[in-house]
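Researcher: Final request for today, and then I'll write up notes for the group meeting. The sequence and the SMILES for S-adenosylmethionine follow.
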Amino acid sequence: MVDAMTTEGIRPDVLDAFRAESRHVYVPRFVRRIETAPGTWETRVFTPDHPDWAREVYTDQLLVTATMFGDDGPPLSSSTVPSLMAAMLDALAVEPGMSVVEIGAGTGYNAGILARLAGDDNVTTVDIEPDVTTTARRALTAAGHPHVTVVHTDGSRPPAAPRSLDRLIATCGVDRVPRTWLAAVRPGGRLVLPLGTGVVCLTVDEHGHGEGPFLAMPAYFMGLRTTAGSNGIPYPGDPTDPLEPCAMPLDAWHDDALRFPIGLALPASDLGQRDLPDALTLWTGDGSVATLHADGTCRQSGPRRLADELANVRRDFESAGRPGREHHRLRIDPQGRHTTSFTPPA
Ligand SMILES: C[S@@+](CC[C@H](N)C(=O)[O-])C[C@H]1O[C@@H](n2cnc3c(N)ncnc32)[C@H](O)[C@@H]1O
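Model: Predicted protein-S-adenosylmethionine complex:
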């Protein structure tokens, strides 16, 4: 596996753990949607009798291992891209004997690697899907880790007693760090988790604050399934204020680098969103709404000026020289308030 991965700067113990752990044990079946002709999609199922199964398993890529509503449906669980797993485990800095909880057991592969770093008895991994925890437990046992604890639960609940964990890692995404996660980690302990479209590494201080940098790598994890999505936010109606020029062009919304700071300033779970080919409408639960048009105009109304907020994020990002994720930091207080900052690239 390591031969296929980007390994620059990764701790040797993490790479050794990847060398020791066989990914194929954890992914006996996965599916992939393939565009066979423009607009025509086919689902391929990979099992050990497929000639490409082993090669696909040991390629540095995401493998979708569970789906909703049959094999053609949206992903429910997956094995993360190994290079991204390695970057997250490198940041987590696990030492033998440390107590570790993983939110998002999935296939169990990451828990198997954590077990190599911390010791089998010290690792607990949880997943909200009962079938997923059953197969993860089976795979971990087959891989020689019968003492890793696999729990079927909602990972947004307190994962351990307050201040009891040395490390917490999440492999499903949030756009706000659940207070339960921060509270579970002891002072001096660490959390590594996907936030927005990045991964943040937080160290907890003696007052229960978490603080730390984002990793450079982009990350698009499936979300923690209890996080409210945009569907739950009632549409307040079309914006009513006069049409105005907009300092946030519609195509900037699709700029991946800019979407990272936008995600920090306007978390996706707070936003309703409707995409049309030549317009984008966003709204929040307090009745604010804005529509950006492809011709560079917008209309907005409500207590928040959402188009202006987007334009301000863009202005700060551009004037700071478009800082990458690794130039951003996050601080959270025990009440769960998030403060982000960035240092412009030198
Ligand atoms: C990317 S997969 C995890 C990959 C896994 N670490 C591995 O090595 O295979 C994300 C997992 O998060 C789980 N998940 C989503 N919401 C959750 C929640 N509220 N609590 C616990 N697990 C959750 C999903 O069921 C899914 O299995």
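Model: The pocket of S-adenosylmethionine is lined by residues 76-80, 103-104, 106-107, 109-110, 126-129, 132, 154-156, 171-172, 221-222, 224-226 (CB under 6 Å). Residues 244-319 form a domain with the TATA-Binding Protein fold (CATH 3.30.310).
Researcher: Thanks, that's everything.
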